[in-house]
Each structure stands twice: as structure tokens, then as C-alpha cells.
Amino acid sequence: MRLFLTALALALANPALALTDPTTGSWLELSGGGAVVGGALAPQAELSLGAWQGPYDPSYAIGHFQGAGLTLRVAPGDALTASASAEVRGGKDVIVVGWYRFASLGAETRDDSLGALALVGGGARFRLRPHYAVHARLEAGIGSAGGVHGQGALTLGLAWTRPWTHAD
What we know:
With 168 residues, this protein is mainly beta. Helices cover 6% and strands 74% of the residues. The radius of gyration is 17 Å and the shape is elongated.
């Protein structure tokens, strides 16, 4: 019961109680998993990189953030699907756990056709070291390369995030 109450208190902790300052930083995530593209199951690899800012205490990894970045995906199934999308995300870190939600728009190719891609989703991470974490990401949306189709993925991987500096 004590563990549950401690976890609940950490999950609901207000970042304003920490020594948060305006901070900027970056992230890099590399992951793999399974995707459903146009009704077909395929493996998927992802690389995401970007920058974030927000009130944050880098000593204790407590705070919330907003960021923008680029995500590249490859799903070699029945038809090779590759995409690049601009992503905006917002989230919260509470010591060793963090979570975020995102929306992304971009372009995708499927075999020889080019189309648009729109995705929404979220992710969670568990810190192994101050700047390294394992993370899981769930995304769903719609693509138009090779005809309009639904698309979704669940990936697991490694994440690196680091504050650059306190913005004064």
C-alpha cells in the first residue's frame, strides 16, 4: 500500500513544487516493433529526434515540456512503406518515469506512390540512467500513399534526452 501511495503521489506531483526553471533540451529515440499498414502486419523501425522546452528541474528530472522534431519510419511488409513527419509533443517527467502525447504530419511512400501521413499517439519511458531510458510508443492515423489506409504501430526502444541549458 505504501508503494502504491508513493507512486500515486509521484504521478500527480505538480512540477511547480520542484525547483523548475525554463529549460531547453533534445531527444533521440530509436525503436522497433510491429505496425499495421493498410490492414497488413509488418515490422517497423523508427528514429525520432527533436528539441523541447519547458519548466524543468534537470537534477531530479521533474517537469513538463513541449517540443518539436522529426520522426522517420520504415515498415518493410508486403509493400515497403517509409515516412518522414514533423512531430509536436508535450509531456511530463516525474523522476524515473515520463509520458508524452504527440501529433505528426508528413509524407510517406508506399511502393512507388507518394502520399500524406497524419498520426497521433503517445509514449512512455522508464529511465535507466539520468539521460537514458527504455520507451514504448503507440501511434495510429491515416496515410494516403497507394490509396487511403489506416495505420498504427506499437514500438519499443531506447531513448536519450538531455537538457542543454536553463533559459534565463
